[in-house]
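Practice problem: DEAD/DEAH box helicase
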Amino acid sequence: MGAQRSSPALDRLLAGPSRRDRITHLEHVPARQGRRASWPEWVPELLVRRLAAAGVEAPWEHQAAAAEHARAGRSVILATGTASGKSLGYLMPAVAAVHDESVRDGGTVLYLSPTKALAADQLRTLRALKLTRLRAATYDGDTRHEDRQWVRQHANYVLTNPDMLHRSILPSHARWSSFLRRLRYVVVDEAHGYRGVFGSHVAQILRRLRRICARYHASPVFVLASATVSAPAVAAERLTGLPAVAVDTDASPRGPATFALWEPPLTDLRGERGAPVRRTATAEAADLLADLVAEGVQTLAFVRSRRGAESVALGAKRALEEAAPALAAQVAAYRAGFLPEERRALEASLRNGTITGLASTNALELGVDVSGLDAVLVCGWPGTRASLWQQAGRAGRTGRAALAVLIARDDPLDTYLVHHPEAIFGRPVEATVLDPDNPYVLEPHLCAAASELPLTDADAELFGPSTAALLPDLVRRGLLRRRPNGWFWTRRDRACDLADIRGSGGPPVQVVETATGRLLGTVDEASAHTTVHEGAVYLHQGESFLVHALDLDDSAALVEAADPDYSTTARDVTDITVVERLRGTPWGEATLNYGTVEVTRQVVAYQMRRLQTGEMLGEKPLDLPPRTLRTRAVWWTLSPDQLEDLGDMDLGGAAHAAEHASIGLLPLFATCDRWDIGGVSTALHPDTGLLTVFVYDGHEGGAGFAERGYADARAWLTATREAIASCECEAGCPSCIQSPKCGNGNDPLDKRGALLMLAELLRNAPA
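Answer key — structure tokens:
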């Protein structure tokens, strides 16, 4: 355990002596003094006065530096910590542009955020400044139809998201001509969130925006705001296609913080194959949230899934109803899928203190300014160090001492991290992984671009080197038509509908209560098979429902109110075929490979587990259609001679165990989540003729995660072996080789065989 410094909030959590053993490490983050800069002379005096009235005496050094770069016409990325005031870095040049008297009606600003909540929060901040020339408005799915025309014609600071830019603004650019002609700045907020397939789509949307702006003789400067990321200038250039300057030295002050790594205890229960079961992270988080609320500590609990957020809030409420019934109403859940008015009400309640404890998905990770928080609970590793620090930074925003607790799930990566704090603290955050040249991403955006303005040969430089090779195929498939002066979209349907930028896979599935016809929320189509299948437990605002039927044709899930004492988890089976081997490296007789694969997955059953303990209650079959995915994978093989040298073992079980553990550890080396990737292992694969273990990207065309695994394979697989070896169980458990989404019921698995197999694989791995 690290230095035993504590905090008042942590002392409250440790009031029970049995809890002290659950902390595996304490990290103390010291307070930091701030460094001010002078107001740039070009900042409007009215803005300076308004900010002074709000308590902002002068900008921090990083804010002023970013603003000066933007004002000078250089695209810039401001990559500093949570609560460092990144918004002032782009607010100064943005307001100056709006007040620019050299341009008729002044310049305009387009602000992009990944969530509606963040845009709404920014709008409140802008309106509070009471600048008469600043006509700010949101333009998103919640904007009333009658208000949209006013925004197009009169707003000079438009706050929107990549989805609306892709589906509404760019396809209708002629209606936005006045705004686009005067566009001076494009602000890309929370830029670290644009990674993987989503980030690749956004990169192409921004290229389309640049192309349309050029049509109106505008060349806006891009200002990106991000949590700390590795190589921020490189990340900004990949996202925008433009060179960018990085400002990444944080000059803002910060109060002291205590960061605890927390491992729930083992229970007396046994899971699959008799493996020991830890108390669930959600149950642990619910108890800790209830304790902190009882002590008046305003706390935000980040939970990985919608269901998990609901479960934590419900568990905390139940605990408070027993100990302090009056406080139960001060706990709530917040997640995507809520109706707009529900989200806004929850945000307001958190700000004014009506809510003391909130369990949220990462919908509240991204920048919503919530001051006064004292503690943050992170329920399960959030996928990247960048996200971890972003979430932890939500506490202590007013300069007071703060507490952050990472609660480990029963999962190989979480277990590894809480016992290897050096993998979290003192290490740089990850590089952003995205691939704008992915043909499954680029093709629909070429079609969308052609529908906006005919494509020409000159556009290949903007959209990337793959463009020239893809255009003939788009013509052959009837998506584009070639003419002497370019490529044209001639179909009646909307080209922008070809690109599913968030990977939802189709129209969202509406969740409807059968008895009342009430719309409870939505689930993206790609998640429907696993979250609202028949028999699934669905949670909404603390209420639980059972799914009576899933109608995929009508995109509807019918649910009935219920109060089961269990949760449900879908199970699937997977087959994989090698389409093309793109790279390969011999590791002695073993080989490491990277290439294109085709994956067929089918949800075949679901498990029921008791809520508080995770105890398995049973499994029921499902009849859902299979799905096929063409993607990228990294895979490794062992030769027959190597297997013979390993001696007698269950080859399939050893490979299966190594596959599970390697999937669990890859997120440490790539900016992904274990749910973004999948795996298949077999003692004899028909395409390789050898024992083979695959790990693949769970997105059409690939997302760059498997490629990162191929590049860092030695470090990745070494950490995988270490995670298995250091686990205290005898034959394998969820903390090392068992997977919560295994389609084979975690059978067979051979922990000892996996250790021997990985050691043999790594024996001749190149340094």
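Discussion: The chain has 24 helices and 29 strands. Students who identified this feature from the tokens alone can consider the problem solved.
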